[in-house]
Each structure stands twice: as structure tokens, then as C-alpha cells.
Target: Malate dehydrogenase
Amino acid sequence: MADLRQEALDYHALPTPGKISVELTTAAETSYDLSLAYSPGVAEPVRAIAENPDDVYKYTGKGNTVAVITNGTAILGLGNLGPMAAKPVMEGKALLFKRFADINSIDIEVKHKTVEDFIDTVANIADSFGGINLEDIKAPECFVIEKALIERCKVPVFHDDQHGTAIVTAAGMLNALDIQGKNIKHADIVCMGAGAAAIACMELLIKCGAQREKIYMLDTKGVIHTRRDDLNEYKRLFANNTDKRTLEDVIDGADVFVGVSGPNVLSAEHVKMMAPKPVIFACSNPDPEIKPELALSTRDDVIIATGRSDYPNQVNNVLCFPFIFRGALDVRARTINDQMKVACVNAIRELAKEPVPKEVLDASGVDSLVFGKEYIIPKPMDSRLCGRVAKAVAMAAVESGVAALEMPENYME
Ligand SMILES: NC(=O)C1=CN([C@@H]2O[C@H](COP(=O)(O)OP(=O)(O)OC[C@H]3O[C@@H](n4cnc5c(N)ncnc54)[C@H](OP(=O)(O)O)[C@@H]3O)[C@@H](O)[C@H]2O)C=CC1
Ligand SMILES: CC(=O)C(=O)O
Ligand SMILES: [Mg+2]
Model:
């Protein structure tokens, strides 16, 4: 662990500080090049855009650029550490956008006093980008912020910790339950956490067939129930009329545990109390709700996933956000709607059932990956993800009427 710490610090410091840079896409060597790129030539696209605003997509990088924007109030599971501490994560998201979907991305860390300040700041700069990826903004403010920005911005606004996490969780969960021979309609579900990721994950699982009354959600004060008087409007939607109060009360006989809370809250004893063939998604980053080796030491019928790259079954929004934005940008969707999210879930799910190319095995350091308990969801390095997911998303955008462009010919073929 000490080695990982130093290696991670060195990785970020060397060879130059940070993880991303800006590169030129056009010649800028000669005086003539500069007379095109800058003065006087740059005046021509200025005039064109002033006359026809859509020309900004033709003459600038807007259409292939996503801003990753945070206020640093819920940095992974590390908490509210402020905008500057969030910068490595935001640069990381920008790296992933470029690496996996060839989307240019820039991180923006916003210092603000009120939620309205934050909304105004983002709304006022949103037109510079093809889309806005909100990241690591804590609940309940994140819900107000996303709703206001969707209303005010012409480009898609997507809170990754809500919807990216929910999409990947739903894809992994439906596959895991299939492998365990269970139907989500009958599953007793425990959700640890009641914030951005938790609320969105449970809402999407309900759209996929889970029963709201069979979900028990917990926050730092325990089970969310109807007699609590400290619930915000988002938690209240998950209040059960129940006498159960603690994790021990609700984990007894549960089929599913979804952790989007904090480290080490699920014990070996809790895992033993779950129903036969349970599914545990311990998704808190960097430290999961339970370590896979501990969960697996208690019983051999469990499927376990984490948010990390160094264990099997990585349930992490990296499997969604680069590709959902790729599809949305390519048909110039003005929003990311439920049809696009469901298309994304299905495309991710289906890919896990196909044979895995050697390059993915090599990058994962394993000899074989076959759909089953240790491979419920594709690996982020699977280069087929971009084509499959982006295409499904773009088609859903076109079919649901939110795309400004037609489906490109031979898209992603
Ligand atoms: N794998 C993935 O792809 C993703 C994982 N996550 C992880 O999910 C977690 C939450 O993120 P996010 O929803 O954005 O943050 P929020 O701040 O919006 O929500 C955090 C929630 O977790 C609850 N919580 C925190 N600690 C505990 C605890 N010890 N026991 C019970 N509940 C607890 C909080 O309770 P209260 O309301 O009482 O404060 C709150 O409801 C983080 O660890 C993050 O890394 C998030 C997004 C993606
Ligand atoms: C993965 C991620 O977005 C998070 O843990 O916040
Ligand atoms: Mg996040």
C-alpha cells in the first residue's frame, strides 16, 4: 500500500505535473499559418458564427469538448475537501474521456458561496462546450443544481455520480442477478448511502423492475423510515413503513447490497446473514464498503463488485460517461434522456456476454474472462465499448427526438 501511495504521487507529478495537456490540431508553423489561425484569418469564422450560431460546431472544437465541473463537495468517498483537492479526480475524468472516447475534456473547479452562484457560473459558460459532466457534488444540492442546469443549458448536462453510476450499477446488477438465478422484481435490496449515487441507482433499478417497497436505504443515521423527521425530499421517496432501524435488521435475508457510502461499513457477519446467492456491490471509492477478500472468505456463493480497477467486477461510472457523451455529441443531442440511459444499460450488459479479445485479457493481466461470477460487466479497456454504447445511445437520441443531427452513416462501423 505504501508503494501504491508513492507510485500514485509520482504518476501525478512526473514527467510533468498532472495528467492532461492541450495539443494543436492544425498547422501553426509559418507566418501564413498564423495569418489563418489568428489575425486576420480568424475573423472569417467569427463572422460566420455571428451570422449562423450553429457554425460554431463547424469551425471550433466545441462539439467534441466536454467540461468536467465540480465544487469538490463529495470527492469520491473522501468527502467535502474543496475544489482544489478535487482537481486530480477531475483531470482523471478528462483523461478517461480522451482515452476511451477521444473526447477533449477540460476540468473546472468552482469556488462558490451559494448553490445559485454555482448554477450561474456553470450556466454562463456552458455554451463553450458540447456537454457538461457534473462530478463529485454532494447531495442534496446536486439534485437542485442538475435540474436547474438542464433547464438553463442548451447542451447536455449529466451528473455522472448520479446517472453514470446508476447505469453501470443497473447493467452489472441485472447480469449478476441473472447469474445467481434471481429476478430483480423479487429481490430484497439494501442500499447503504442516500446521496447522489444512491438515490439515482435505486431509481434506475426501480425502472429496471425492482420494487420500491423491497428497497431499504440507509444513511449515517440508519434505516430511512417513515417516522424519521430529518429526511430531505429525495430520501423521503425511499422511506419504508418499518420497525427496522439498523443495517443488521435489514441485511438479514437480503439478496442485494449496494454500497455507495463509505469504507468498511459491511462486516463479514453481515455478509453471512444475507440470503443464499447474494450480490454485493461495494462501490465506494477508493475504499469499498467491504473488501472482496473478506466477503469471499465468508461464503462462496456471493458475487462481489467494487468501484476499483484492481479487483474483478469493476462497477464504476467510467464504463458509462465517456461513451454516453460520445453518442450524445455525435448526434448533437440537447439532453441525455431516459431512453439514452436505458440503451446504455443494455449495451453494457450485452457486451459482457461476448467472448473477450486478447488485448483486453492482456491489459487485465488474466488468461480468461468468461461471463460469470467474476466477470459480470465489461472491462473499461475493452475498445468495443465505445462503438457499442455510443451507437446505442446515439440511436436512442435520434429515435426519441432529442438529436439535432441524423444518425451518421456507417456510424462506429
Ligand atoms: N463506483 C462508482 O462508480 C461510484 C462510486 N461512488 C461512491 O459512492 C459514495 C457516495 O458518493 P455520492 O453519492 O456522490 O456522495 P453524497 O455525498 O451525495 O452521498 C453520500 C451518502 O453516503 C452516506 N454515508 C456516508 N458515510 C456513510 C456511512 N458510514 N454509513 C452510512 N451512510 C453513509 C451519506 O449519509 P448522510 O446523508 O447521512 O450524510 C450520504 O447519504 C462515495 O464513496 C463514492 O466514491 C459514487 C459515484 C460513482
Ligand atoms: C467513480 C466516481 O465517480 C466516484 O467514486 O465518485
Ligand atoms: Mg464521482
